Every structure is written in C-alpha cells, then in structure tokens.
Amino acid sequence: GQNIDQPTEMTATEGAIVQINCTYQTSGFNGLFWYQQHAGEAPTFLSYNVLDGLEEKGRFSSFLSRSKGYSYLLLKELQMKDSASYLCAAMDSNYQLIWGAGTKLIIKP
Amino acid sequence: GAVVSQHPSWVICKSGTSVKIECRSLDFQATTMFWYRQFPKQSLMLMATSNEGSKATYEQGVEKDKFLINHASLTLSTLTVTSAHPEDSSFYICSARGAGPQETQYFGPGTRLLVL
Fold first, then answer.
1. Pairing, β B106-107 against β B4-7
2. Contact status, residue B97 vs residue A26, Cβ threshold 8 Å
3. Confidence class of residue B84 from pLDDT cuts 50, 70 and 90?
4. B104, A48: Cβ pair inside 8 Å?
5. A18-to-A8, A73, A77, B47, B76 alpha-carbon distances in Å
6. Handedness of CA A26, A29, A32, A37 (dihedral sign)
7. Would you call A48 an interface residue with chain B, using a CB distance cutoff of 8 Å?
8. Smallest CA–CA separation between A45 and chain B, in Å?
9. Nearest to A99 among B1, B44, B108 (CB)
10. Torsion of CA A10, B103, B40, B15, to 10 degrees
11. How far is B65 from chain A (nearest CA, A)?
12. Is A81 helix (H, G, I), strand (E, B) or coil?
C-alpha cells in the first residue's frame, strides 16, 4: 500500500532550526511536496522536490532522497508565525498526491 | 504563486438543504481541480478529482449523488452538497492544477460548512 509517515507534533524555540522528516512508500514516484497549513486555513505550497538533493528557498529548505524514500523540511531562524502544520505529500505514478497526516509545529518564545 | 478563490468562505444551512461551493482559478487555467474535506484536527481527505469538461472521479466512499461536482470551464469548478446533514459539516477545500500532471496544486482558502 501507499503510505506517508511524519511526526505528529514537534516543538522548537523561536530563532532555532527545526527539521521535519517524512518517509514515503508509493506506487511509482513523481515528486514530493511540502505544504504549510495554519490552523483554520487552507494549505499553502512551500516546495516541490523530484530530484535528489537540497532545495533552498529563504528560511525554508527541502531535501529528498529517492533511494531512501525520505524527505525533510528544514526551517531556520524560526519565527512565531511558523507555528502551523506541515504536510508532506508524495505524488505517485498516477500523479495522485498521497498525503501525510501533517506535523504540528509549536514554536515557543 | 497561482491564486485560487473559493466562495462562500462560510455557510450555515438547515438540514435537508443544498449548498453550492464555487472554486475559481484566478490567474491560470486549471485543467484539473480537486475537492478535499477536512474534519477538525484531521488530515486532508480527497473527495474527488475533476477535469474540465468531463465527469469527476470520486474517491472510494464518497457518494457522487450527494456531492455533485461540475467543472464546466478551465477556471471554475463547483461542489454541491445535496440534502446536507449535520455530519456533512466540515471544512471543504478545493485545489487547482495547471496542464501538467506534475504541476503544483494550489489551494483555495476553504469553505466552512455548518449544517444545523
């Protein structure tokens, strides 16, 4: 079956760095997406990786290892506004997104 | 990034009535639109996928006669919840994707439905 695993909840301190991991098992693979979802709001797109390696976009970076079925989202210089759920989604061979349950990130001052 | 709008953002209705939710892609042509439902503190659940001009593909367990989806143009898809019941109360979110299957899905702001 197809499956996405990511931690349910993480806590970090303002100004620090946090890494949110995601492992996936899909029928075929056409890329890995990360979305941010604030409470009560719809998800917003953060990143897309289809090749191995690190993609940096400001304070946020996303990494992919296709051979390991593994990705992480790295958030630097954490701000209080980064408190949100982070959703990992893998695209399978039918171009369907398989969604993780999300990681709730709590930022403490 | 691409902009997707949804209307209405909030709707409260009586049990047994029908509710229509609109999803529009404002600055790109959405070949494919997706409808999701999300209950509090739960993950996104894909309800159906619609391609412009063709019938929607519903996920297992989603009643197509209850959740009517129309994708008549490249910028508009509608979801109608027919004969709504309190258990249909949820956060309904649409997303839209351009022509390429690997293109990013961009989400609308969501519609909160409360059925009394």
1. unpaired
2. no
3. very high
4. yes
5. 14, 8, 9, 32, 38
6. negative
7. yes
8. 7
9. B44
10. 180
11. 23
12. helix
3-state secondary structure of A20: strand
**Using omega within 30 degrees of 0 as the cis cutoff, is the peptide bond preceding A43 cis?**
no
Closest alpha carbon within chain B to A90? B102
The contacts of residue B92 (CB under 8 Å, 6+ apart) are B21, B35, B36, B37, B38, B79, B81, B110, B111, B112, B113
Q: Minimal Cα–Cα distance from B108 to chain A, Å?
A: 7
pLDDT, one tens digit per residue, over B39-49 is 988 888 999 99
Measured in whole angstroms, how far is the alpha carbon of residue B30 from the centre of its chain?
13
Distances (CA, A) of A69 to A90, B25, B80: 10, 32, 38
How many residues are present in chain A? 109
Any CB–CB contact under 8 A between A17 and chain B? no
Question: How many angstroms separate the Cα of B87 from the Cα of each of B11, B104, B114?
Answer: 14, 31, 9
Give the chain A residue nearest B109 (alpha carbons).
Answer: A42
CB contact under 8 A, A95 and B44: no
Position B80 confidence tier, pLDDT thresholds 50, 70, 90: very high
User: What are A39-67's pLDDT values in tens digits?
Assistant: 999 999 999 999 999 999 999 999 999 99
In angstroms, how far is CA A89 from the centroid of its own chain?
8
CA B14 remoteness from chain centre: 20
Contact at CB, A42 and B93, closer than 8 angstroms: yes
Do B92 and B110 meet the contact criterion of CB atoms below 8 Å apart? Answer: yes
